[in-house]
Design brief:
By secondary structure, the protein is of the alpha/beta class. Strands 1-12-9-8-5-4-3-2 form an eight-stranded parallel sheet. Strands 6-7 form a two-stranded antiparallel sheet. Strand 6 and strand 7 form a beta hairpin. The longest helix has 20 residues. The radius of gyration is 17 Å and the shape is globular.
Length: about 300
């Protein structure tokens, strides 16, 4: 069952701990994620593994579980031979698996349905570039059916995440309007700008005037980008900031591997909190150990 409080109400009272990277936890459990569907493949082939990964983060102290739907799309499932009804069922299953793990927790846990960018469906790393050659309305038409399917499954919030540019942000926000579920908007950034090169103040401002948006911020970026981005998101929008960077390593879409050194420090959460962050966690390559330490640092 859902928590008694809304996530927005919880954010008014203080910071809330997000989970970490789902894919790295699934890999730690021995799952093969080499296909184009990535972790979404397991929704059909081995949902018990997804449940186990969510449970690992609950035990680490996560208060928000992000579903395994980041790379789950009608188009991607169609390439696997699944029709739209079957695909919609798997999108709903992603929410149900997270809800099951949340219900088994000994503390309040919310479910965030992941809505990844168009580039995640392409599975070629283009979510870290943006500018797909599609207009806002074309991107809105792509995102709307998946958002509707996820919203129908009853998550507490939609995570419009790893957004590389403002065109896609507009499309996602328009597609989610009227779906009946609050959202957070989270960009992937580099060099103090969106991945497509737009000023972050302009990007964050898209979420400022929408009541449906409960938090704005960044994810799946180098941790060194986060302090300034969190402060700017909070200043521009007047809303709680959300922040969950990756490990600092760089994804190589050609070799399908992470390059570079690990740079995620849970101790940064204090600076995030002071800058206005109310949703804090980790993304790719950040696991239960780091989330457990982050949760410990945020306890009163």
């Amino acid at each position: 069952m859902k928590p008694a409080r809304t996530l927005a109400a919880a954010l008014e009272e203080g910071p809330v701990v997000l989970d970490g990277g789902l894919s790295n936890q699934l890999q730690a459990q021995g799952c093969d994620l080499t296909g184009s569907l990535w972790s979404a493949r397991l929704l059909a082939d081995d949902p018990e593994q997804v449940d186990a990964a969510h449970t690992a983060y609950v035990r680490a102290g996560a208060q928000v579980l992000i579903t395994s739907s980041y790379q789950a799309t009608f188009e991607g499932f169609a390439r696997r031979g699944l029709d739209r009804e079957q695909a919609a069922g798997l999108l709903g299953r992603s929410v149900g698996l997270a809800r099951s793990a949340a219900d088994a927790a000994g503390h309040e846990v919310w479910v965030a349905a992941s809505v990844g960018p168009y580039g995640a469906m392409l599975a070629d790393g283009s979510e870290y570039r943006g500018r797909y050659g599609l207009g806002v309305r074309e991107l809105e038409r792509f995102h709307r059916p998946r958002i509707e399917a996820l919203a129908a499954a009853g998550p507490d919030v939609l995570a419009l995440e790893t957004v590389p540019d403002t065109d896609e942000a507009r499309a996602l926000l328009d597609a989610a309007e009227g779906c009946g579920v609050p959202v957070w908007l989270s960009y992937t950034v580099a060099g103090g700008r969106t991945r497509a090169g737009q000023p972050l103040a302009e990007a964050f401002a898209l979420g400022a005037g929408r009541d449906q948006v409960i938090a704005v911020g960044v994810n799946c970026c180098d941790p060194r980008e986060t302090p300034d981005a969190v402060a700017l998101a909070s200043e521009v929008t007047g809303k709680p900031a959300v922040v969950y960077p990756n490990s600092g390593e760089r994804w190589d879409a050609v070799s399908r591997s992470w390059q570079g050194g690990f740079g995620y420090d849970p101790g940064m959460v204090r600076a995030w909190r002071d800058a206005g962050a109310r949703l804090a966690g980790g993304c790719c390559r950040v696991g239960p150990r780091e989330i457990a330490e982050l949760a410990r640092l945020l306890r009163p």
